[in-house]
TrEMBL record:
Cellular component aspect of the GO annotation: cell envelope
Protein name as catalogued: ABC transporter substrate-binding protein
Family indicated by similarity: Belongs to the bacterial solute-binding protein 2 family.
Signal peptide: 1-27
GO molecular function: carbohydrate binding
One Pfam family here: Peripla_BP_4
Domain Periplasmic binding protein: 37-278
Keywords from the named record: Signal
Domain of life: Bacteria
Compartment annotation: Cell envelope
């Protein structure tokens, strides 16, 4: 089943729709061999990430795809090394969930020279040459940040002082969620971000950062904006240990909508969580199969995300998949 893919520059002219071209090399390829896909994952920083890894693994198993999985342990250099090893193993396609946005061009060029298509998944990259990857599949993080801020503008009930728990520095998810929120809050001069620090998308760090913020700002903190649910859940623990009631004394606004957070919304401990769907295994492999078959694919594909608050969280719980 191994179809060879050629990155002839003439085939990369399209801007929005990539009109891929492929060639098969029957002499070199065994038609019955499973598709080989290399997947450079960021790491295992959050429940969202675990759901994302499982989605790609389970769907690969279902389709008989030979998935080579590399855990980047939250370091870009590990991911770059993994991509180089996928190239050396002559995989059919590479999927990267880039920890940070910048610094990818050299290794993407190596993949292109080896005629191996790259799909950028989940977090986007900043590149000088958009032809270095065939497609991006993920969520619109700017839109997520905007939805969180708009919800707050409508529901803050006079509370105005915000602390922000940022995701991994340099990641598209943290950059865009931060910018969108700041842009939206700027339209409401009553709001003020009184502190903003990274918790690296991790629950334990969300807790320690929140503990420190509570010590520094005390009762001034009225709202927490967390770039993901794991940090929000860690912050909630810190707030409870400080003798306050999350969701009431301090409003909690977050992103991801993992099941545990939607449950916390239903319980009134988180006020709102914006969905960021991690379950795109099927979409990833459909896209790879299309690319390898020489079919056109959209350059940028965004998931549709919802928002959960007290009005809809309980009803959504039974059907939450992650
Ligand atoms: O929100 C967070 C994860 O890039 C969208 O990374 C992803 C983010 C997600 O660790 O929980």
């Amino acid at each position: 089943m191994k179809l060879r893919f050629a990155f002839l520059s003439a085939c990369l002219a399209a801007i929005f729709v990539w009109t891929g071209c492929s060639k098969s090399t029957p002499a070199a390829d065994d038609a019955t061999a499973p598709l080989k896909v290399g997947f450079a994952q960021t790491g295992a920083e959050s429940a969202w990430r675990t759901a994302n890894t499982n989605s790609l693994r389970n769907e690969a198993a279902k389709r008989g795809i030979d998935l080579k999985f590399a855990d980047g342990q939250s370091k870009q250099e590990n991911q770059i090394r993994a991509v180089r090893s996928f190239i050396a193993q002559d995989v059919d396609a590479i999927v990267i969930a880039p920890i940070v946005e910048t610094g990818w061009d050299p290794v993407l060029r190596e993949a292109q020279r080896a005629n191996i298509p790259v799909i950028i998944m989940d977090r986007s990259v900043q590149t000088e040459d958009e032809s270095l990857y065939v497609a991006f599949i993920g969520s619109d993080f700017y839109e997520e940040g905007r939805m969180a801020a708009d919800w707050l503008a409508a529901h803050a009930g006079g509370r105005t002082k915000i602390v922000e728990l940022q995701g991994e520095p340099g990641s598209a998810a943290a950059n865009e969620r931060r910018k969108a929120f700041a842009d939206a809050i700027a339209k409401h001069p009553e709001f003020k971000i009184i502190d903003s620090q990274t918790g690296n998308f991790r629950r334990a760090e969300g807790k320690t950062v929140m503990e420190a913020m509570l010590k520094t700002h005390g009762n001034d903190i009225e709202i927490v904006y967390a770039h993901n649910d794991d940090m929000a859940l860690g912050a909630i623990q810190a707030i409870e240990e400080a003798g306050k009631t999350p969701g009431k004394d301090i409003l909690i606004v977050s992103i991801d909508a993992i099941k545990e957070a939607v449950q916390a919304v239903a319980d009134g401990r988180i006020n709102c969580t914006v969905e960021c769907n991690p379950l795109f295994g099927p979409k990833i492999y459909d896209t790879i199969e299309q690319v390898l078959a020489g079919q056109p694919v959209e350059k940028k594909m965004y998931n549709q995300d919802e928002l959960f608050d007290a009005t809809n969280a309980a009803a959504a719980l039974p059907s939450r998949q992650y």
